[in-house]
């Protein structure tokens, strides 16, 4: 069974149809990439899946459950984690704190228990720490553990944001342009980590990315969208060769 | 230069970072406990005022400093706490249940108000909470059976554990009472901050959209924070009523709300220390000005008393300097000094230069 099914998803802002009848399914364990020119509606699809936007039509089914009517804060608990195109970290907290906030959807203590810091709360904190340390190990962030986000370089912030998403123990991770603004070496590392997430952690990855070398390297399937509508689906090479995709990026040939 | 090696997760979870840190606070605590022997009655009274305002500042710090929602109406919750406490005590309640009732009443009223009010943000939120503070002045006059109308109510003496506690008759006992309440609240506050609820407050402050994506119920987190904040401020209001001995509508004017906000800004938004530093400034600055005035009058022969409004002007100047040069307030200054001492002689000049911030997703808050 597919992990994520998106059926006829649509949303319009005023008169602009940002997403217009997009359907696709993501199978467990695959890396699925959305590509398309700027303003094609890729990030909007992400925001619809993480329930930050309300779709005007269509349905989103995750792991057999219809999440179309679910409030945004319940999505993380089901196992969908995400990163943002422009990093949305908690700047005044340390890396460790950011990752611990990532565990929020797995919290099992109430505020009044925390107020008294009952032994149960300490046990739960230790448990959260243990799982966060595994993520720190996985993404090699130990050197930055106690550093404040505000002082970190851009490339590290990108990785911390992925670490924060992984801390919530997701089944599906949405990566919104993981390689944007990264150097060649950092993009290389990102490709390895995406492969590791898929192979070692058994995660399903849904990704928006412009860097076609990264897309070709890690993606199992690629969906091209333009002006809110799906254009072509297939492997990275197939999509890149599709005349409709070329047209969307470069325009049509001059006709005489 | 100190370096701390962590060997267990508990090193990060514990309230105190090792023995030296614990010792520092133990010394501070010992000094506070010994204060009645060290200070005269007058200065003990001032110190008690610092404690009460610290408590009120802690309340505001929770919602404004740690959850990022500005409130210009916290005097209203001091009023609710004060009038609840006095009204119940005058009807025969014991002090402790009445004190608890102050916290609960302020907290519940805060929770009810927070749902509509915290849908707003920024300047709109500031105006809405300001309105709250103005409304409470009128309510305090109208609700005469509880608040004593324009005349206000006098605080009855507190009977506790077979002792009679009165601000003037037994100032030490009242001081210890305030100290005990403040220490308990501070510990609870720190406990919240080192667990999931506290982290969700910080998340809401720094990025609502990613807080939501990580499973934080933003509306609920704001309500909880506002409600707890009001409860703490209500406690401070009740203690303030006993400190001032009599309260009426004039005790909780909008100016008090503004002073409270300035207190947390001067102290340093987003730090527990800040609430205390701010309270020290707010309470002791007028005293300092009075002392300076006497000095100038006597020694230099300059009649400063002829220029009224010195406190306000100095206060305003302080705020301006803080906002321009040290946005993290007195806590920021203290933090830098501490770092300088810890790293001596390796401190670098650019260590705290503000780093550039990266663009946040603008379309979603």
Automatic annotation (TrEMBL), chain A:
Keywords: ATP-binding, Nucleotide-binding, Transport. SMART domains: AAA. One of its GO terms (molecular function) is ATP binding. InterPro entries: AAA+_ATPase, ABC_AA/LPS_Transport, ABC_transporter-like_ATP-bd, BCA_ABC_TP_C, P-loop_NTPase. CDD domains: ABC_Mj1267_LivG_branched. It comes from Alcanivorax jadensis T9. This is Branched-chain amino acid ABC transporter ATP-binding protein. SUPFAM superfamilies: P-loop containing nucleoside triphosphate hydrolases (SSF52540). Residues 4-252 form the ABC transporter domain.
From TrEMBL, chain B:
Its main location: membrane. Keywords: Cell membrane, Membrane, Transmembrane, Transmembrane helix. It is a multi-pass membrane protein. It is found in: Cell inner membrane. Pfam families: BPD_transp_2 (PF02653). InterPro entries: ABC_transp_permease, LivM-like. The chain crosses the membrane at residues 20-38, 44-63, 95-113, 120-136, 173-192, 224-244, 304-325. PANTHER family: HIGH-AFFINITY BRANCHED-CHAIN AMINO ACID TRANSPORT SYSTEM PERMEASE (PTHR30482), HIGH-AFFINITY BRANCHED-CHAIN AMINO ACID TRANSPORT SYSTEM PERMEASE PROTEIN LIVM (PTHR30482:SF20). This is Branched-chain amino acid ABC transporter permease. It comes from Alcanivorax jadensis T9.
């Amino acid at each position: 069974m597919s992990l994520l099914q998106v059926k006829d998803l649509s949303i319009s802002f005023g008169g602009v149809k940002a997403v217009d009848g997009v359907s696709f399914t993501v199978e467990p364990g695959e890396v699925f990439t959305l590509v398309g020119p700027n303003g094609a509606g890729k990030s909007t699809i992400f925001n619809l899946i993480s329930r930050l936007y309300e779709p005007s039509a269509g349905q989103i089914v995750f792991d057999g459950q219809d999440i179309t009517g679910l409030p945004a804060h319940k999505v993380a608990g089901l196992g969908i984690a995400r990163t943002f195109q422009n990093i949305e970290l908690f700047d005044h907290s340390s890396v460790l704190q950011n990752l611990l906030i990532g565990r929020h959807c797995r919290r099992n203590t109430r505020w009044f228990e925390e107020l008294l810091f009952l032994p149960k709360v300490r046990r739960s904190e230790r448990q959260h720490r243990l799982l966060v340390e595994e993520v720190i190990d996985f993404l090699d962030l130990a050197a930055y553990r106690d550093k404040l986000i505000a002082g970190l370089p851009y490339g590290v912030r990108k990785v911390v944001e992925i670490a924060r998403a992984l801390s919530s123990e997701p089944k599906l991770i949405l990566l919104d342009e993981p390689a944007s603004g990264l150097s060649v070496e950092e993009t290389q590392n990102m490709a390895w980590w995406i492969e590791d997430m898929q192979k070692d952690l058994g995660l399903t990855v849904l990704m928006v990315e412009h860097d076609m070398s990264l897309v070709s390297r890690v993606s199992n399937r690629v969906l091209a969208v333009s002006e809110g509508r799906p254009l072509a689906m297939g492997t990275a090479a197939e999509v890149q060769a599709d005349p409709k995709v070329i047209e969307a990026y470069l325009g049509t040939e001059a006709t005489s | 230069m100190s370096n701390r090696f962590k060997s267990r997760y508990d090193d990060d979870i514990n309230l105190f970072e090792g023995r030296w840190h614990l010792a520092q606070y133990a010394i501070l605590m010992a000094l506070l406990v010994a204060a009645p022997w060290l200070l005269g009655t007058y200065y003990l009274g001032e110190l008690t005022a610092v404690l009460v305002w610290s408590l009120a500042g802690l309340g505001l710090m929770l919602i404004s400093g740690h959850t990022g929602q500005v409130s210009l109406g916290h005097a209203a919750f001091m009023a609710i706490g004060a009038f609840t406490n006095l009204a119940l005590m005058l009807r025969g309640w014991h002090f402790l249940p009445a004190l608890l009732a102050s916290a609960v009443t302020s907290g519940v009223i805060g929770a009810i108000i927070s749902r509509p009010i915290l849908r707003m943000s920024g300047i709109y939120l500031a105006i809405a909470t300001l309105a709250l503070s103005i409304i409470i002045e009128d309510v305090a006059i109208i609700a005469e059976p509880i608040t004593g109308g324009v005349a206000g109510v006098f605080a009855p003496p507190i009977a506790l554990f077979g002792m009679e506690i009165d601000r003037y008759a037994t100032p030490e006992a009242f001081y210890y009472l305030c100290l005990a309440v403040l220490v308990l609240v501070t510990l609870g506050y720190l406990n919240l901050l080192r667990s999931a609820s506290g982290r969700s407050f910080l998340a809401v402050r720094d990025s609502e959209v990613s807080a939501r994506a990580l499973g934080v119920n933003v509306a609920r987190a704001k309500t909880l924070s506002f409600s707890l904040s009001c409860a703490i401020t209500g406690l401070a209001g009740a203690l303030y009523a006993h400190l001032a001995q009599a309260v009426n509508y004039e005790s909780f004017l909008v100016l008090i709300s503004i002073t409270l906000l300035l207190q947390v800004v001067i102290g340093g938004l987003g730090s527990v220390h800040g609430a205390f530093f701010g309270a020290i400034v707010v309470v002791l600055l007028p005293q300092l000005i009075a002392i300076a005035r006497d000095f100038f009058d006597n020694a230099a022969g300059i009649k400063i008393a002829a220029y009224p409004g010195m406190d306000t002007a100095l206060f305003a100047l302080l705020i301006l300097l803080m906002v321009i040069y040290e946005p993290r307030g007195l806590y920021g200054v203290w933090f830098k000094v501490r770092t300088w001492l810890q790293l001596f002689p390796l401190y670098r000049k650019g260590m705290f230069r503000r780093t550039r911030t990266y663009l946040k997703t603008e379309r979603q808050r």
